[in-house]
Amino acid sequence: MCLILFAHQLHPELPLVVAANRDEHYGRATRAAGFWPDKPAILAGRDLEAGGTWLGISRSGRFAAVTNVREGGAKRPGQRSRGELTRDFLESDAKPLEYAREVLARSKDYSGFNLLVGDLDQLVYCENLRNSLQVVPPGLYGLSNHLLDTPWPKVVSGKNQLRGILESWHSAAEASSEQLFELLTDRSVAEDDLLPDTGVGLALERRLAPIFIEGETYGTCCSTVVVADNQGRVKFHERSFYKSPPANTVFEFRLDTDTATG
């Protein structure tokens, strides 16, 4: 996952709103979002090479998402899949802060990561670039391939667009997945002097700059929207771009019930 825009306890009727793009090599084996047959409480896409996920939610409201940290030539030697960090939280009953502390105690096992874990009441962010964690205060945030709210152009633009969308929703009934998907298809590229320098060269920085990335072998593989309201209703909407036309999957359920549909 390379861009996660989220509002945590910001909208009075929607404690969690997430709009995220997963950027990956097109050839990486992946299963589209669904409730996992072996872990039926988990709703997420699945990386079939390592068994983890980039973003998911459980029937009890546990939420987790991860992005990698772009480190240029200074890659860490970690061999474990970062997708297991999200998977393991969704499978566990550990409190978010407790889990984040445990992850940081073994953070050298992984290449650079940003991890969000929590539920509708509390979100915790941790990362192994500085090996730090924080409880995320209510607000609107953007997370790409550096630290939380690092002002890369697509993070700044995405946050501004998300803020405008949330302000237009006067009630939970007005929440629109399509507005969030439109945001996630933004292909705008910032001027060169605004792009970050992450050690990959200007040409690649340009290709990775848009919210929605298009390339020959690497790009935005899927977009995910998660909207949870104060009544415990959750909408999880994935639009995948592995095939043409894009495939849409929608799950709507109430937390701690068996009413999911897809």
Strand content: 25-35%
Please list the strands of the largest sheet in the order they lie side by side: 3-4-5-6-7-8-9
Give the helices and strands as they follow along the chain. EEEEEEHHEEEEHHHEEE
Sketch the major β-sheet: 7 strands, antiparallel
How many helices in DSSP terms? 5
So what's the oligomer here?
A: single chain
Report on this structure.
- With 262 residues, the protein is of the alpha+beta class.
- It has a single domain, classed as Penicillin V Acylase, Chain A, CATH 3.60.60.10.
- Helices cover 19% and strands 34% of the residues.
- It contains 5 helices and 13 strands.
- The strands form 2 sheets. Strands 3-4-5-6-7-8-9 form a 7-stranded antiparallel sheet, covered by helices on one side. Strands 10-1-2-11-12-13 form a 6-stranded antiparallel sheet, with helices on one face.
- The C terminus is likely disordered.
Question: What is this structure, in a nutshell?
Answer:
With 262 residues, this protein is α+β, with helices and mostly antiparallel strands. The chain contains five helices and 13 strands. A seven-stranded antiparallel beta sheet has the order 3-4-5-6-7-8-9, covered by helices on one side.
